[in-house]
Amino acid sequence: MTEPPRAVFPVRDASAGPADLTLTPAGEPPRLRADAARNRKRLLEVAAELAAERGAANVTMEAVAAAAEVGKGTVFRRFGDRGGLMLSLLDHIEQQIQAAFLSGPPPLGPDAPPLERLRAFGPAVIRHEHAHRDLYMAAHREQSRRYNPSYQVRLTHLTLLLRQVGAPGDVELTGHTLQGYLDTVLVEYLLTSRGMPVERLDAGWHDLVDRLGTPR
Amino acid sequence: MTEPPRAVFPVRDASAGPADLTLTPAGEPPRLRADAARNRKRLLEVAAELAAERGAANVTMEAVAAAAEVGKGTVFRRFGDRGGLMLSLLDHIEQQIQAAFLSGPPPLGPDAPPLERLRAFGPAVIRHEHAHRDLYMAAHREQSRRYNPSYQVRLTHLTLLLRQVGAPGDVELTGHTLQGYLDTVLVEYLLTSRGMPVERLDAGWHDLVDRLGTPR
Questions:
Q1: What does the record give as the DNA-binding region (chains A, B) (predicted)?
Q2: Which residues of B are less than 8 Å from A200 in CB distance?
Q3: Which of A101, A159, B99, B159 could form a disulfide with B175 if both were Cys (CB 3.0 to 4.6 A apart)?
Q4: Cross-chain Cβ contact B183/A180 below 8 Å
């Protein structure tokens, strides 16, 4: 989701809804940008809270505007429509787990040895996606988005760690296999429909990583 | 897809469309059943041919009726609607691969040792689903059908073979991992979008089975 193009010195367009003077103080482009980014982030945090409380299906543009105490037009200008809001929200949530495994503290982040990072990756992703399951499940319903940039970031991360631990064989395919184990829909099926405890999934992940990650 | 309930001595219902005397000769229930099953099978074979030639999206009730040289009403009575026809067709196609791995010749079928059967399963499924990819891809678009009876049949088969080869660890989860590698959408992504040769996927499968199937 890219920001809609915005004029540096915006001309008021009556069709765009009520003016949002906080976000677009004409003539101050640098502050405007910083403010806009901050405000966008705040709207996403509000939306994430609403999604956690009520479920993603109940997060409307109106509800976000009311909870953030801004005009409805502000939310529409930021995200275009509800689909845009949901994509931005998923992106925002996904960035949290990305930050954790790319630059967070050990055992997920770069200060731990690669095998420990690999072992920590599965349980972290399972818990993260389960906490935001309605958002991830909704995203997976759009099959075209399955091999999206988030999937590729995770794949690159996993194949890098696999190379670091000296994994044998075709590490790209092994990366896909590991991602398959963490597939949102599979994990929800196992946890919810099959009633498996999450610790069983953790143990299965550790075994999988140990078997696929280390030379025979 | 179950057959719609049918009276043993059917009373002609004008709303059901033109009479199909070949399929429902009143008063001969045994022959009627056998004929009906045979005709249903023939309609599915015609539909499968049409799907292979034109793509599943272009298989209409009318096209099947024309190609099978029966009345359109016959096709509607057999399958209810186009969704019913597609489900029956997928079921018919899936039964071919099920027959191959449950009771077919080696190395897939029961006369081969279990590790050979496991190794043969991946390449066979990859080729089978790729040959019928638009049907399988369409089925996967309906997420609710992902852990359907066909998935369970394959899972039972894989976990049985894994137990037979003495696979360590959580064989049920290993079965899901193996199925994840063969996921229709993943395989099509790797073959089509990533341009991988199918032999690379075969080799990855063999490596995966060897690593997950045998004690360390």
A1: 60-79
A2: 170, 173
A3: B159
A4: yes
